[in-house]
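Retro notes, item 3 of 5
We never archived the inputs for the pyridoxal-5'-phosphate complex last cycle. Fixing that now. Sequence and ligand:
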Amino acid sequence: MTTDASAARQRFGPYGGRYVPETLVHALDELTEAYEAARIDPAFQAALTDLLQNFAGRPSPLYRARRLGEAAGHPAVYLKREDLNHTGAHKINNTLGQALLAQRMGKRRIIAETGAGQHGVATATACALFDLDCVVYMGEEDVQRQALNVYRMELLGAEVRPVGSGTRTLKDATNEAIRDWVTNVRDTHYIIGSVVGPDPFPRMVRDFQAIIGHEAREQILAAEGRLPGAVVACVGGGSNAIGIFHAFVPDHAVQLIGVEAAGKGIESGHHSASLAAGSPGVLHGSLSYLLQDADGQVAPAHSVSAGLDYPGVGPEHSFLKDSRRARYTSATDDEALAAFHTLSELEGIIPALESSHAVAHVLAHGREVSGPIVVCLSGRGDKDVAHVARVEGRGSLL
Amino acid sequence: MRSISQAFQERRARGQAALVPYVTAGYPERASTLSVLEALADTGADVIELGIPFSDPLADGPTIQHASFVSIGKGTTVRGVLDDLRAFRARRDTPVVLFTYLNPLLRYVLDAFLRDAAAAGAQGVLVTDLPTGSDPAVEQRIIDSPLDLIRLIAPTTPLELVSEVAKGGAGFLYYISRTGVTGARAELRSELAAEVGAIRAAVALPLAVGFGISTPQQAAAVAAVADGVVVGSAVIQALDRGGAAEAGRFLASLRKGMDRS
Ligand SMILES: Cc1ncc(COP(=O)(O)O)c(C=O)c1O
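Structure as it came back at the time:
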């Protein structure tokens, strides 16, 4: 049950909320209570910090990418190297936090949804570490395009359940994970992979990812002696973006720029730009911008990158958009693929296709920013190499 | 116009439970809704739940998911479902509850939906992803409308919160018989009778039980302890076997099972 006071905490302006079957309401109450206690518990925070430093490898470096900067026509482009985290993306920040929380709540079974497979791998990793049972739902299309990550999850002891219904991508994997949770809610914790879903997930995942921005803010101040002109991140569900934005939200001079996937172009209708081209609606438990048709059916999304191929977006981004604190733009599949190559060739860093969208934006518009630019390099591209080769007609390498 | 409460009261007066079948509108064909509704009304339905399909039915199991996807694929719209309902209402007076998810209603514009649904002859609305307290403004607009808001109680709802969760509800209260999604099951849980008894002691509204009921024996067992029996996926499966006529035969078999107990 929601009281008036807790209702306010569940939302970002009008967005967010808890639009779920009644069966889950009690579990969300319990989760909220457990999270709010853990948040202020020094023992929990110390355990998490220890894992982030000694297991995941934090802090991640802030690297000045000179050749990328030259290509972008900007003197000071920095990459926040989330790709260097253990398991290769920012996702581990969240899964370690939630797995610790699940352990604290006495839940021995973990479920997760995954698109690119990075969140699935990060969840499977945390479950191996904590000896928890792990089931990961993944759309059949993503099982194909991210085959390497499927095998990684299995190596880590997780069971990957392919989802063949609906779009066969992240959206329907999430539906299936929620159905599992409704069924097994008493002994299962659902580790959601982004700042989406019913409250408290969007704010809890944000808090676990906020370390990206807290570190980046200190690091850029140390390197440049000033705040950046812009912070740029790709937006799927929006967790790496919220993670790097959060510490900068009070710094009003810092532009926050989210880059959605424009797929084959926004005009083509084949894209995942919920904030740019969607309208407010309810999916997966919260009210937020959503790609939908005139009858309120959720419209299929498209992106070359599985991790951005999602018709919704976290509710806090909807709030940041409406309040104009952040600005949302997009990069197409082709622009992201070009940036994937550019960063590989110029810096010796193969980025995830998701992160390549943020890099593409800097290549196209970096020169418009005065002051240093911090780009969230949310993950590395090893998982994408075979897929890119296929997309570019180099046949099947794996 | 018959109300949902009347339908439950009439059964209760005879010492019987109400039978509440669910069907997805526009399934198996866009044009089949009317004949399916008539078949259900004529074979023992006291109240009918008519599903407005949604692309992401996360409270539903494979049977109703499939029906929803087929129906949407054949062009079913909210407006189309209301047209079907209007046609049915011209022929039968069985109360109808529209069963759906919140997003299609928001997209239609909630107040317009409530007005148009009432005008088309709906008596109630059940929104699976709008639990009590989740959106007080939206809930209040439904409560203030002519439609009954059907509240749900889950096995995970703490007993001391049941009367709070039922608040604003009208027509009947829906008890979800198990944690999980919709779908026919071979067994009912043994604790069900005790749970139903405890909930009935806490609220005045008639209590219907659904999720997983698929045989005359199960319907009879639920009818012995509750005021109503909701059957969904098994009705869809009957439709798949032999169309509206088979769905009607199946419903009649449930009614018979319930009356024998
Ligand atoms: C490397 C990487 N970046 C970004 C994303 C998109 O998610 P989010 O927007 O929540 O950061 C994913 C999702 O799979 C990812 O793997």
